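wait is this the right file?? whatever heres the structure
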């Protein structure tokens, strides 16, 4: 399992400088004592219902004495845990820094509220650490979702000086996943040496069904915007479309090389150029214009095809 120490962080220790909860000796019937001597006065009924695998003493019959439970974690860790499980305390805003130190005790003591919070907290951040942390917490679905989110980032660097560490290996693995996603996405939209762009499919909504096609009239005023592409598959041949389709695919290829997110297919940075070029066709020929107006539907179909291609790329979600 990936150790929490593989992700060095200093923000979490700020919990120590904040007012610690449950410090009033007049409340609770048991003392929770941490490794650094911090004491929390808690109700054993609340603690016992949420935190397992601790040997709890029986409540004292004397009002002047409280039994003590010793735990090996720090006061900062238990301050955060108690804020998440104890009634009457303000629920904390759980961050990646908190998750790093919560994973081990949450699993060790089977703290249900904390274990339930981890998937939601890991889905919020837009951060490279979310994916390896999800792997560390044995949350493969969350790890895959976090890895997919990183595809929207402009880059996925491996932190310098971490090549031999668990954090470095996790980042390198994420970079490999990104590279393979980019290759799968670019292969779908870029022409090969023979100019084959699409595989003909008869199912509704396929790329070839969505491909804008010109009217075919010999006297069409938009004829200069026509082009032919070869179609591979079970029924190979030639399909007519518009030049702006090729321009869109070239722009999308460049976008996916840098940012292999399927959502880039409908991004304004690439669709705007296609729609602007389609406007000239709409102005020149009414029949061709009806097809040219479908250029955004074509982009949405490309997005669906990219989603399928990228989802087939394997992501290892085990320990780094």
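ok assuming it is, sequence goes like this
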């Amino acid at each position: 399992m990936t150790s929490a120490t593989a992700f060095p962080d200093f923000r979490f220790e700020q919990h120590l400088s904040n007012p610690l909860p449950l410090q009033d000796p007049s409340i609770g019937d048991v003392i929770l004592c941490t490794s650094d001597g911090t004491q929390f006065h808690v109700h054993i009924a609340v603690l016992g219902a949420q935190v397992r695998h601790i040997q709890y003493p029986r409540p004292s019959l004397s009002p002047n004495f409280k039994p003590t439970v010793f735990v090996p974690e720090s006061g900062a860790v238990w301050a955060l845990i108690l804020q998440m499980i104890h009634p009457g305390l303000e629920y904390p805003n759980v961050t990646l820094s908190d998750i790093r130190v919560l994973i081990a005790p949450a699993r060790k003591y089977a703290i249900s509220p904390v274990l339930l919070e981890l998937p939601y907290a890991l889905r919020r951040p837009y951060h490279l650490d979310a994916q390896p942390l999800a792997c560390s917490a044995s949350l493969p679905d969350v790890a895959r979702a976090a890895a997919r989110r990183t595809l929207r980032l402009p880059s996925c660097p491996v932190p310098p000086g971490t090549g031999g560490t668990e954090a470095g290996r996790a980042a390198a693995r994420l970079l490999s996943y990104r590279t393979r996603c980019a290759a799968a996405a670019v292969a779908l939209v870029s022409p090969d040496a023979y100019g084959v762009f699409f595989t003909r499919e008869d199912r509704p909504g396929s790329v070839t069904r969505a491909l804008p096609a010109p009217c075919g009239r010999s006297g069409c005023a938009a004829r200069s915007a026509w082009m032919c592409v070869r179609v591979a598959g079970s029924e190979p041949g030639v399909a007519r479309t518009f030049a702006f389709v090729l321009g869109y695919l070239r722009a999308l290829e460049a976008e996916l090389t840098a940012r292999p997110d399927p959502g880039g297919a409908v991004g304004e940075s690439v669709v705007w150029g296609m729609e602007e070029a389609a406007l000239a066709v709409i102005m020149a020929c009414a029949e061709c214009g009806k097809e040219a107006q479908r250029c955004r539907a074509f982009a949405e179909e490309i997005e669906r095809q990219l989603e399928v291609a990228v989802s087939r790329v394997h992501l290892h979600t085990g320990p780094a």
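The chain has two domains: 1-124, 196-311. so i think its the right one actually
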